[in-house]
Write a structure and sequence with these properties.
Blueprint: H1 2-30, E1 33-38, E2 40-56, E3 59-63, E4 68-73, E5 80-81, E6 86-90, H2 93-143, H3 149-176, H4 181-198, E7 201-203, E8 208-213, E9 220-221, E10 226-232, E11 236-243, E12 255-260, E13 263-275, E14 285-292, E15 304-321, E16 325-326, E17 333-338, E18 341-346, E19 348-352, E20 356-361, E21 368-370, E22 386-390
Parallel strand pairs: 1-22
Antiparallel strand pairs: 1-21, 2-11, 2-15, 3-10, 4-6, 4-9, 5-8, 6-7, 8-10, 11-14, 12-13, 12-15, 13-14, 15-20, 16-17, 17-18, 19-20
Helix pairs in contact: 2-3, 2-4
Amino acid sequence: MNRTFLRRPAVLLALVAVVIVALYAGLRLRGPELPGYRIETRPLQQTVVATGRVISTSRTQVGSEVTGTVLERRVREGDLVEPGDVLVVLRSDDLDALVREAEAALRQLQQASRPQADASLRQAEAQATQAARERQRRADLFARQLLARELLEQAEEAEAVARAAAERARLAAQATAPGRSEELQLQERLAAARAQQAKTRIRAQAGGVVLTRHVEPGDLVQPGRVLFEIARTGATEIEVPVDEKNLAVLAVGQTAQCVADAYPDQPFAATVNFVAPGVDAQRGTVIIRLGVDPVPAFLKQDMTVSVNVQTGSRAAALVVPNDALLDAGARPAVLTVRGGRLQRVPVQLGLQGLAKTEVTAGISAGEVVLAGAATVAGVQEGGRLRVALEGLPEARANAASRRELPVSFD
């Protein structure tokens, strides 16, 4: 009995070993278990994701046309201004004096020089008339031989001098007459002085929002220095540099979903209204602009915004997760399991989304592809394996806010 008792543990150990060997052999025949996806037909959107900044359609820089010291600054960043609003007042003592001098000169002409010229004209005309009568009287006396020729000649000379004086007085009166040369000259002088004086009150030439200011009371400003930058009132746009490889799928009129980094929970819509005709050779990017209407109240100039431009869509597409693709460039393929064995299958691709890509040829609905295909190791093509099915991945709802680049399959 002792010998039988001693044999039983040996038999049990042998049986256990046989079972373990059998299980191991079975697992080896079935192959390792790897994650994968079952191919299905799903709606698909192709998008381009990038980051840009809020811009206005036009900005204007405000400076001074004259050199002067700032007496008063009336606006600051964020203020809304209308055309003609005064932004800065400069000291203008010397220009004020020029205006007063020009006004005094015009008053002098109108109130003194013009009446004096009119009086001088009347006096000169009277003297010319008197000189003409005197010459005629002496001519009559000379004709009757009652007066010497010398006296007649003196009268004729006096008449000529009087007529010349009257002509000069007439020209002087005409020059000082309303609307004539002297008055026009003084009016232009006054207008020029007032124009220079007006330049000391720096005004907004267009309505908009003050973005920046670079001046304070007491500053000395000179022509050419930018004092304010104003975003003109008008349409708001988002300027986005996009990788040039996406140029073929971008077009004016495409819709986009935008998320401001400062307000990630308040997405808003935009529309592509411009695609640059050229590419930045240094950066390899193309500029697109998106119009925003209506404009969210929180949107501010130069705010960072992530955009998700929809460049294509399918109501029903045979899709494969992006991580299941091998070499999505010139010769895309997937690793599928057919008959329990690993097989590399070339495929043709259509629309490319953030998480999934359309397959137009190569595989059919219901087939299984391996997840993380590019990282499969230890299994040769034709080898056996098992697949642990996973659900198809979805694009993250906040993909734009994470500043993801367009999907790359390199």
